[in-house]
Design a protein that fits this description.
heterotrimer; A alpha+beta; B alpha+beta; C alpha+beta; A: alpha+beta; Uridine Diphospho-n-acetylenolpyruvylglucosamine Reductase, domain 2; Uridine Diphospho-n-acetylenolpyruvylglucosamine Reductase, domain 3; Enolase-like, domain 1; five-stranded antiparallel sheet; 35% helix; B: alpha+beta; DNA polymerase, domain 1; five-stranded mixed sheet; 6 helices
Amino acid sequence: MAELRNYAAPRSLAEALQVLASGPATVLAGGTDLMPQSRSARVRFAPTLLNIQGVAELRGVRRRDGAVEIGALTTIATLRDDPAVRNGAPVLWQACDHFASDQIRNAATIGGNICNASPAGDTLVPLLVLDASVVLASGGAAGIHERRLPLSEFLTGPGRTARRPEELLVEVRIPVPASGWVDRYVKFGTRPALDISTIALALGGTLFDGRLENARLALGAVAPTAIRAHDAERVLAEGPLDRARIDRVVDAADAAIHPISDVRASDWYRRELVHNLLRRILTDVCPN
Amino acid sequence: MSALIEIEFRLNGISRRVTVPLQMSALEMLRDMMGQHGTKYGCGEGECGACTISVDHRTVNSCLKFAVDCNGRDIQTIEGLAATPFGENLNRAMVEHGAVQCGFCTPGIMMQAQQVLTDNPDASPAQIQRGLEGNLCRCTGYRKILDAIEAVAHPSPAGD
Amino acid sequence: MAPTPREEAFADSLIGRRVPKLDAPDKASGRTRYLHDINVPGQLHAKILRSTEVHARIVSIDVEAARRVPGVHAVITAADVPWQRPIGITKDHMPLKADVVRSRRDEIAAVAADTVEAAEEALRLIRVAYEPLPILTNSAQALGPGAPLLHGEDLRVPGRNGALEVVHKACSDNVSMAYEYGHGDVTQGERESAVVVEDVFWLHYVTHCCMGVSGVIAEFDASGNLLLYSNTQVPFLHKREFAELLGIDPGRIRIIQPPIGGGFGSKLDIYPFEPIAIFLAKMTRRPVKLLFTREEEFIASPTRQPVLLKLRSGCDREGRLTFRAVDTIHDNGAYTSWGATTPFVMMQTISSLYRVPHCHYRTRAVYTNNPYAGSFRGYGNLQATFAVEAHMDKLADALGMDALEFRLLNAQDPGESTPQGMHFRSCGFKECLGTAAERSDYEAKRRGNLEHWNDGNPIKRGIGMASMLHVGGGAKMYPSDGCGTIIKLDDFAKVTLITGASEIGQGSETVLALLVCEELGLPIDSVTVVNNDTAITPWDVGVHASRTTFIGGNSAIGAARKAKRKILETAAPKAGRTPDDLDLRGGHIVLKATGERIQEIGRFLRSLHFSEKAELVMTTYYYEPPSVHLDRNYKGDVSAAYAWATQVAEVEVDTDTGIVRLLKITAAHDVGRVLNRLGIEGQIEGGIVMGQGYALSEDLLVEDGMIRNPNFRDYKLVTAPEIPEMDVSFIETMDGEGPQGAKGVGEAPAICIAAAVANAIYNATGTRIYALPFTPEKVYRALRGANMPPKWPEDAA
C-alpha cells in the first residue's frame, strides 16, 4: 500500500470532516477489512489515516420519525444485540447473526461494511430489502452538509461507492416497515457464520390475501454489487404467490443476476442456489 | 518507515505508553513491544482467533486492530485474564476437561470463553458453540473445549 | 463394605483414569513459550523469496538493491552456497534453486535482516528473470507421451573432495517412486467371483494447518556447533541429516524442540526453509529466526498425498471376498517427500483389513509442478480406506447382503497372519463392527433411509459405515524403531523422566508419566518430563506412525521397572523380605500381599543416598519393538501391534444445495487398553473432526500449479458449531506387547470418516460420489449428474 504518513483521531464529526476536506484520507472504523487490505498491497490508500473511532456521535441505534437510524460506527455486535433491530428488522438481525465471528462483529461497523461495498457484504442484502438509505456528511467547522442516497444508488461496483472523497458515511436510515410486513433471509453456507457469502437472498413485503405486496427482493454475491431484483418484485406484486408465479419470480431473478466463478463457487452453481433457495423462501413465506 | 505515533492505554490494569508505527497491528505491538507472548499469530486475517484480546471488554482479533487505535482503551490479554479468579477457574476447567492439546489456540479460546460467559453467564451449549465460531482448533475437535466452558457456566453440584 | 488394605493400595492405579495434561495449565494461561515466542539475543530475521512461476528456467537473479537495504545482513542465492546439498527422501530437492524452479513455492533467495520489515523490503527489491517452461498440472499428464521431464537430468553437487557427484539420478519417466505388491492370483480370484466391481476414485489435496506456523531458529557457537530450535517431529533423524547437509559431525548439532503448535505428520521431513536459515546463520554468524506467514504455510508446507485410485474387487456368492486389484497414481508434486511412501500403509489396508485371498497393488508417485506431498496423520490410509469401504458397500448391495454381515464375514480375527505377513496378536475388529453398528442402530437406519429416496423432501438422511486397520505398535521403517528413556529419582521421590519421545500436543508426556507412576506407585505430580533436547534425551526414531504411547511407553516402563527392582532389592533385606514380597504403592514400599506400608519411598531413597553405600536410583532403558522390516516384496510384520476401528457416520443432505451436515459419529476403537481416558478421548475426537474436514470442507485448490485459497477464509477447517455428536467406545483387547496392554491410536480416528460419509451420502440419496471432498457444489453436481467422475488416464496403463 501507499505509505500511511499522517494520523488523525478526531473527537467530533466536524473535526473528522475537516480532515477529509483538507485532503485525501483513508478512513479507519472497525479496521477488520482495512487491516488485511493494508497488508495485501491490493488496495491503494490515501496517505492520511483518519481514525473515526473517537467520534461518539456516530454510534448507536435510534428510532425517529418512522425510521430506524443507525450510526455508521455501530458495530455488528451492537446491532445483533439491539431489540429494535431484532424485532423491527429481523432480516438485518439475521444477517448480523451470520456475520463473521464474535470477535469481528465486536469490531466491524455497519458503515464499514457498506463502504467496503463487497458484492458479498453481509448487511447489504437485508438493507436493500429494507429500502435503507445512507446519509453522507461533508464540510467541517464552518458547517456540515448532509446528503441522503438510497443504498442501491450508493453501491456502484465491487469496492466502489458514490461517496466523494470529502464525505463520510454517518448514518443508515431504515424506514420502519408497514404492519403485516414479513421477510426472509438466507445466506448460503455450511457454517452458521464465519463464511464469505457464496450467495445471499433477502425477501420482504406485506403479506395480504396470499400475495406479497410492496415486495422487495435483494441478492448478494451474484453481481458486481448487492442488487435489488426489480423485475422479480414486479412479478410478485402482480398476483397471488402460487406455483406458477414462483416459477416466474425465479426466472426474473435469474435474469437479474450475473454471477461469476471464483474459488467459492461456479457461476452455474450460484444460479442453481438462487433458484432453489429463492423457491424455498417463497414457499416458506406463503405456504400454499 | 511509516509515521510513529505515541499512544497510552491500560494493559491488564497497568497504564502503558508506547510509540508505534502507524501500520502496526495491536498483535505486533503486544507481542513485539509489550512481551505479551500469550497472544498468538495464527493467520493475520481474523479467521482463526488465536490472537483474541479484549478491548474495552469486547473481544477482537488483535491482528485486525491498528495499534494506534488502542489509544485510551482498556486492553486485556491472556496474561491479564489468567491472573483473575475467573481466569483461574476457566483455566482449571480447561485443564480438567482435556481441552488443551498443542495449546496454540488455547489463549484465544480462553479470551473468547470469558466473553461468552460474561455476556451470558447462563449460556446454553449451542450459544457456547456459536460463541467460539471465530476460534479454530486443529487438535481437539472442540468437544472438550465446549465441555470445559459449559462446566464453568453450569458447575455440577458434585464438582463433577 | 470397607476396602481391604490391598484394595486401598491398588485404588490409586492411574490406568484408565482421566489425567489432565501436565503442560495444560501453562498453555491455557499463555505462559508456554513456543518457537514463535523465543527471541535469542542478537538474532536476525529471515525471509525467503519464492518463485512466481510454476515451472521456469531462472535466467538471472539481481540482489544488488536488496543488499543495500539498511538493516540487511545477508542476501543469499544458490550461487552463495555452492556446497549446498539436496534434501528430501530421494535427495531430489536443493534448498535454494539455481537453474530451474519446478513449483510455485520454490526458494530462490533469502534475506537475513535486523527486522522482518527490512527483510521483506529487501525481498521486494530482488529481480528474477524467468524463462517459462511447459508445466505438468496433473499426474496423468506427467505420464503421457511426450511429457516434459521434471527431473530429467542427473543432479550433481560437489562431494567431500570437491568433485561433482551424482546425488539424484535422472528420472526418464517422471515416476519418482513405484511400488508393486501381490499375493495369490487375481485372475483366479476374478474367475471365482460372483460379483465384480471396479471404480476410479480421486482423493484431493488437503494440508495440515497447524495453528502455529512453521519456523526455526538456527545459531552457531564460536566453535562451529549448530543449535537449532526446531518444530521437528524426528529430532534424532534430522540431527544426522543436517550434519550430512553441512558436512559436519552429527555430534556438533543440537536440536531443541520448543512446544509445538501442532504436528500431524507435517514435520517429518526437512524443508528448504530449515537449511536456508542455517546457511544465513553461518554467513552472518548470528542467530537467525525464520517464521512463515499463514499464506506461506499454505503455499510452502507439505500436503496430504493426492491420489487417483482404480480399485477392482470381487466376492463369491456367499459373500466372501475373492480378490482386490489396485492401481494408483500419486501426484508427487515437484519433489519427493514422505507422501511418496504412503503406499507402505495403503497396501496394508488393501491386503489385510479384510481377508483377501488374491491381491495386487501398484503405485506410481509421479512428478508434477504441483505442491509436493508429505506425511499427514493416517499416511495414505484415508485414501485407501475410502476406496475399500465404498466397495464393501457396493459388493454387499450387489449381492443383496446386509452390509454389516458382509463385513463381519470378511473381517480379520485375532491370531490371524495375513498373506502380507502381518500378524494380528490382538484384534478387536469384529467387536468394533458390532459395537459401532449396535450403538448407532446401523442396520435399521440404513434400511429405513432408503424409503425416503423419492419422497419429495429435499432433506435426506443417511448412515454409512467404514472400518480401518493401522499400525498400533510402531512401524519399522528405519534400522531401529526404538526409543530410549532415562529415569532419575531424587531424595524426595520426585522423578525426572527423560525420554526420547517428542511431544506434539498429543499428550505423550502425560501418558509416559502415568506409566512410570503406575510402576513406581507415585502420584502423577511427582514426575517432571524432559523430552525436547537432543543433548539430553536418549535416541528415538520420532513421533509418527501412532507409535509414541506404544514404543515410548514400553521404554518408560522398562526404565521404571529397573528403578523399581533396584528399590525393592535394596529394601528387601532391611525389611527381612524378598524383593518379590514387596511392591511400590501410594508412595510407599508395601507388602505386596496385604498392601501394608513398610516405608515411604522418599525416606527410603534418602536413607540409600546418605548411607555408606551412597547410591542414587537412576536407570536407563532402550525399547526396540519385536517388529521386522518389510522384505523386498513388501511382506513382513512391520508393527508390534495393530489397531482397529469402525466408525459410523450419520448425515443430512440438503439436495437443493448439496450441503452435507455430519450429525453423528459412532466410533468403536480397539485401543488395546485405555491408559489416560482424557487423553485418548481427545485424540479420537480431534481425529474425527480432522476426518470431517477431509470429507466435507477442506479443499486445497491447486490449479495450474497455483494454490488458489492459501488462507483460512477459503480453506475451511471445521469450526466449533459444525462438529457432530460423537459416541466413542473403546474395545480393550489387552495387547500382549503393548504398554499395560495399550496400542497406538493417534492416527486411527481420522481414517474412516470420509469413507463412512461417502457411504452415508449414498444411503441418503442413492448417489455415490467417487471424488473428495464432499463440498456443497461437488455434491450438488453429483446429485444433478453434472459432475465429472474421476477417470483413469488411457495412456497411463
